[in-house]
Amino acid sequence: MSFQGIEEAFNRISNVVNKTAVMTSRTLNSLLNAKIYFKCENFQRVGAFKFRGAYNALSLLSKEAKKRGVITHSSGNHAQAVALAASILGIKATIVMPKGAPTNKIKATKDYGAQIVFCDNSLEARSQITEKLIEKYNYKLIHPYDDNDIICGQGTAAYELIKEIGELNIVIAPLGGGGLLSGTALAAKGLCPEVQIFGVEPSMADDAYRSIQAGYIIESTYPETIADGLRTSLCERTFTIIQKFVDQIVTVSEKEIINAMRFLWERMKIIIEPSGSVSLAALLSNKINTKNMKVGIILSGGNIDIAPFFQLLEKRVVQS
Amino acid sequence: MSFQGIEEAFNRISNVVNKTAVMTSRTLNSLLNAKIYFKCENFQRVGAFKFRGAYNALSLLSKEAKKRGVITHSSGNHAQAVALAASILGIKATIVMPKGAPTNKIKATKDYGAQIVFCDNSLEARSQITEKLIEKYNYKLIHPYDDNDIICGQGTAAYELIKEIGELNIVIAPLGGGGLLSGTALAAKGLCPEVQIFGVEPSMADDAYRSIQAGYIIESTYPETIADGLRTSLCERTFTIIQKFVDQIVTVSEKEIINAMRFLWERMKIIIEPSGSVSLAALLSNKINTKNMKVGIILSGGNIDIAPFFQLLEKRVVQS
Question: Which of A219, A225, B50, B164 has a beta carbon 3.0–4.6 Å from A202's, enabling a disulfide?
Answer without folding.
Answer: A225
